[in-house]
Specification:
heterotrimer; A mainly alpha (326); B alpha/beta (354); C alpha/beta (373); A: 326 residues; mainly alpha; 0% strand; globular; C: 373 residues; alpha/beta; four-stranded antiparallel β-sheet; 21% strand; disordered N terminus
Chain lengths: 326, 354, 373
């Protein structure tokens, strides 16, 4: 297990390294100069050259990349804005704030949104899916399947504004979604996030319902499940001990991918509800051609996805004894 | 053993009646293409301690019959009609909880492919101990010890350690031994073995077949042994029932059915199977055509589209119109007269068997 | 052998005529690497699927290959058809070594060596019509038979006993036995000289098996095609093959004409194998019993096979010598011409019942002992 983890973490670092390189090359390959956005109305070639010099963009790309790597690992005090301890992505071109600090500021919003929604959609989605599989072929099953089908074909950018319009602007039952730190005011944290949670988890729950149902039904047709029934184990026992164990593999796989990408920023949800999370930050970094911020968000999201991938693979070993990690 | 279920069944009602009696069993499934009549009017008995071999090809209804005995068919899509009496107790109408008490306890089952029939997620020991705990109320430790003992009995070397292994750590033959240990752990009265050696290599198959025979002597269970292999059935069974397209076409003792078969389908099976001592000069004589679809089975005798003897039956077209019946004892469901059956076998079939 | 040599066609039309066998395999070996290690994955071992086998197949002959799962018989078939590349050894087809031939060099030979697979369900493309499946090999090899490909497809369907009008149907419209016939027709499309049939009937029902075996036999005899017939069913192999090789853990342990292998076997494993086949005794009395040998356990892992004779771990005659010295596959005293056995302590050439059964399985021995008391 330890060997597996070490190997996978080394692999993840290599991937991140390659990813940063690709991002770098692409950034300079795109004909869009951040200096043009920064120098404002009185722009002339001199001031652009000056901005290039200040940002270090006049250096060769390889040298810039080397500086980026050096700063990331060692930190740097070469920045005009102030010192920048490791992991240093530099300062945002747009806000002049330290990128790592900004990421850490935004992270609690994304984590709150993701975790809250994940709890909801796991319980509701899996619960409904299991119920449908248990009552396969009945009205309950058909209703759940049809409902899940309809809901999972909806989109956040449709459901979100609809919910806002109905629940916030029309009826004033809820406050406009906003983020308050949970340590500051738990009640405000909860009420501010309830609508995004519900909307985000509705769509996910529908997908998990379908997945849980289909993988349970598949498992229930496995021969070893029939064997368990043939030796007199009750239907409930077989359902939850034998079939459920097998269904966990696809569920955990998808859950890991979902959680990883949500932690990297639920872009559309955050944008729809105006929540200041990592997803919003990603949009902003692209919009302003903000290389340090872009690299920061990018690598952070990627590491989240990689991390959850490793967690999922490690989880396989606990679920299925046939999986040997080495 | 000190459980309620066992005690209730313990004093056999003076050994009266057969262990298992199936009467006019009809099983059909609803599918997208229509209704599949998988078992179509089947009756048979099994006496205590004896082995009934059921021979048939895919789609003959042999496996469905046995899943129905245990009530393991999907009730949503399946219609069951007729009677299944285990020790005089009706099973087709029995409640689920009653069936659960019987399964793995009085009636146990061994499946074809032990790799897929054992759960990959639990240790072999636990899978064997589970039904023992459930049916005898034994404590965990006691049940584990019983599982280890059973593994030793079926010839798993070092059973104490191997009980902690998962099925994928066992070889194919050992998995089937574990499966047998699991089936016999509660000392069942009836053991249903559904093609238990088809997935195994021939030397391992021989070990498993001998093991089953020896264990039957020790445990005294009645066995229903399902297979498509006449050689295996000859080795295992006391009595044989040949099934075709959802019904029985011939029954009798093993000697009777294999040495003096009376049904054209049984002749066909014997003819089409090469043996280690068969004549090499002549080609095999296969049964023409293919097994019928059970969505739309042939009228009259189910075998008539593939039968080469129907023109010898008295009364033209009788095989197409009228379904021949199978008597309870030694008999075959065919419109040929007993004399015809005897002479055709002796004069036309037997010489070809070499 | 130079590339030139590989490419030149053999002298005569049929190389089998002047004594040169159609296929001569020598020292054929296939090891599949096993990966492992830390921190960098590397090859840490090998599954010795096939480990140095020699065999010859003559033109028009049917050669049977029997053995239990994991003995390497299927791998051998795939090596001969060059679906796999051997680790070492040579495969000489009509005198040309195709063991390491490139795709280009293989192209003309591929049409002469065809394969029939076990599973008639997965070996036919479900999205192609039968006509397309059977004419596919002709298209790839750019063969335009007289009267067009469609006419040839109809002919082939007729040969394998299917309705020629059905060439526009899809595989799912056929039963298992009929699909296997389609597989045979596809293999025949290029008029091959050699067909490797890997368990061609074991997925079929008993009554259908005989139909397909008869078809293959007809094809073999009437078209003069040589067969390598791979199967685990000893009776079917006996029925089909003139010569038979028995494999165990990647080695041929005994080879000979059918009669020698089935009635005068010398290798203990061949004895065990034959005695394990359950048989219907059709005799009116119980005379002529066969010997009863029950081995213990399963076949060992081909990753680390036993030293010396590979069968020694399950053999009742094994002695120290068997562990140190690998028995060569030779004609031992008492064998007929062409009957080779790889054993230091061969058995008597008979399969009659012995004075005492050989029961090595400990559970069986214990149970039988208990009942004897």
């Amino acid at each position: 297990m330890l060997r597996f983890l070490v190997r996978r973490f080394i692999g993840a670092v290599v991937i991140l390294f390659l990813l940063s390189m690709v991002t770098f090359v692409l950034f300079f390959g795109v004909p869009r100069d951040p200096a043009l956005l920064m120098c404002g109305k009185t722009c002339n070639p001199d001031s652009i050259a000056n901005i290039h010099h200040v940002l270090g963009l006049d250096k060769p790309i390889t040298e810039q990349y080397w500086i980026f790597l050096h700063n990331l690992v060692m930190g740097s005090d070469q920045f005009a804005q102030g010192p920048c301890p490791a992991p240093c992505f530099g300062y945002s071109y747009h806000t002049n704030e330290q990128v790592w600090g900004t990421l850490m500021d935004r992270l609690p919003t994304t984590v709150s949104l993701t975790l809250g929604a994940a709890v909801c959609f796991l319980f509701i989605g899996l619960g409904t899916g299991l119920l449908a599989a248990w009552r396969r072929g009945t009205l309950i099953d058909k209703t759940a399947t049809a409902g899940a089908m309809v809901i999972s074909s909806l989109q956040i950018y449709f459901l979100g504004p609809l919910a806002l319009a109905l629940l916030v602007y029309q009826t004033h039952w809820f406050d406009k979604p906003a983020y308050t730190s949970v340590t500051q005011d738990p009640a405000a944290w909860f009420t501010g996030l309830i609508i995004p949670w519900v909307i985000l988890s509705t769509i996910f729950a529908a997908q998990y319902t379908r997945m849980a149902r289909s993988s349970m039904i598949e498992q229930l047709q496995e021969e070893h499940v029939r064997t368990a029934r043939a030796k007199g184990m009750s239907r409930r026992y077989v359902f939850f001990r034998y079939a459920w164990r097998g269904s966990l593999i696809p569920i955990v796989t998808i859950f890991g991918i979902d959680l990883g990408s949500l932690f990297g920023g639920a872009i559309i949800t955050e944008y729809t509800f105006g929540l200041p999370g990592l997803g919003n930050l990603a949009v902003q970094s692209v919009f302003f051609s903000d290389l340090p911020l872009l690299l920061g968000v990018m690598l952070f999201s990627a590491s989240m996805i990689l991390l959850f991938n490793i967690i999922v693979d490690a989880a396989y070993a606990f679920i299925d004894p046939r999986v040997r990690l080495a | 053993m000190t459980t309620l279920t066992k005690e209730a069944g313990a004093p056999h009602p003076a050994g009266a009646g057969p262990l298992l009696a199936v009467r006019d069993l009809y099983v059909s499934f609803r599918t997208e293409d229509g209704v599949v009549r998988a078992v179509d009017g089947l009756s048979f008995d099994l006496e205590r301690g004896r082995t009934l071999g059921i021979v048939g090809e895919s789609g003959s209804g042999k496996s469905v019959t046995n899943l129905t005995i245990l009530g393991l068919h999907n009730p949503v899509f399946t219609t069951v009609d007729g009677e299944i009496l285990l020790d005089g107790r009706e099973l087709t109408t029995a409640r689920e909880s009653e069936l659960e008490r019987l399964r793995g306890n009085k009636v146990a089952m061994i499946f074809q492919d032990p790799l897929t029939a054992l759960s990959p997620y639990y240790t072999v020991g636990r899978q064997i101990a589970e039904p023992y705990m459930k049916h005898t109320g034994a404590a965990k430790k006691e049940a584990w010890q019983r599982a280890v003992d059973m593994l030793g009995k079926v010839g798993i070397p070092n059973p104490r350690e191997r009980a902690k292994d998962y099925p994928h750590q066992f070889s194919g033959g050992m998995r089937q031994r574990a499966m047998i240990a699991m089936a016999l752990v509660c000392d069942p009265d009836l053991l249903i073995a559904d093609e238990p050696t088809t997935a195994l290599d021939v030397t391992v198959q021989a070990q498993i077949l001998d093991l089953l025979k020896d264990l039957q002597q020790e445990f005294g269970s009645g066995i229903i042994f399902i297979t498509h292999d006449l050689g295996v059935i000859a080795d295992m069974a006391d009595d044989i029932m040949v099934m075709y397209a959802g019904g029985a076409v011939e029954r009798g003792t093993t000697d009777e059915v294999l040495r003096a078969p009376r049904h054209p389908y049984t002749w066909g099976l014997l003819n089409s199977m090469p043996r280690l001592d068969s004549d090499l000069g002549a080609p095999l004589s296969p049964i023409p055509g293919t097994p019928p679809s059970l969505l739309n089975p042939p009228s009259g005798c189910r075998f008539h589209p593939r039968c080469t003897f129907q023109d010898r039956v008295e009364g033209a077209g009788r095989c197409v119109r009228e379904r021949p019946l199978l008597a309870p004892d030694r008999s075959s469901a065919c419109h040929l007269t007993e004399d015809q059956k005897r002479t055709i076998f002796l004069e036309e079939i037997k010489p070809g068997l070499g | 052998m130079t590339e030139e040599n590989v490419l030149t066609a053999p002298r005569g039309k049929d190389a089998g005529a002047d004594g040169e066998p159609l296929l001569r395999v020598s020292g054929l070996t296939k090891h599949f690497p096993v990966k492992g290690g830390f921190p960098i994955r590397r090859t840490v071992g090998a599954v010795q699927a096939v480990d140095g086998i020699d065999l010859t197949v003559h033109a028009g002959e049917s050669f049977g290959l029997v053995g239990e799962s994991g003995c390497g018989k299927s791998t051998t078939g795939r090596l001969i058809t060059r679906l796999l590349e051997p680790t070492s050894g040579s495969i000489a087809y009509r005198g040309r070594d195709i063991g390491h031939a490139t795709r280009k060099q293989l192209a003309p030979i591929r049409s002469e060596i065809q394969m029939i697979f076990q599973d008639p369900y997965s070996s036919l493309n479900p999205r192609q019509t039968v006509g397309k499946i059977i004419s596919g090999p002709m298209e790839i090899n750019d063969i335009n038979p007289e009267g067009g490909r469609e006419k040839r497809v109809r002919e082939l369907l007729e040969i394998v006993g299917l309705n020629p009008e059905h060439f526009n149907r899809f595989p799912h419209e056929f039963s298992g036995g009929q699909r296997q016939r389609i597989g045979v027709a596809r293999a025949l499309a290029l008029e091959p000289k050699l067909i490797v049939a890997d368990e061609p009937v074991s997925a079929l029902d008993v009554s259908i098996q005989a139909q397909v075996v008869n078809l293959l036999q007809k094809v073999q005899r009437e078209l003069g095609i040589a067969f390598v017939f791979i199967a685990h069913d000893l009776a079917v192999v006996r029925h089909f093959s003139q010569r038979v090789a028995v494999m165990y853990l990647g080695k041929i342990i005994e080879v000979g004409d059918r009669d020698s292998i089935y009635t005068r076997p010398r290798h203990p494993y061949t004895h065990a194998l034959l005695s394990a086949v359950p048989e219907v005794n059709l005799a009116d009395d119980d005379s002529g019993g066969r010997e009863r040998i029950r081995l213990a356990g399963d076949v060992p892992s081909p990753i680390s096979p036993p030293s010396g004779c590979r069968f020694r771990t399950r053999c009742w005659k094994a002695q120290d010598r068997c562990g140190t010295e690998e028995p060569p596959l030779v004609r031992i005293p008492g064998n007929r011409e062409g009957h080779l056995t790889a054993c230091h302590f061969p058995e008597e050439p008979t399969i009659e019942a012995r004075d005492e059964d050989i029961v090595l399985d400990p559970a069986l021995a214990a149970l039988e002992e208990g009942q004897a008391e």
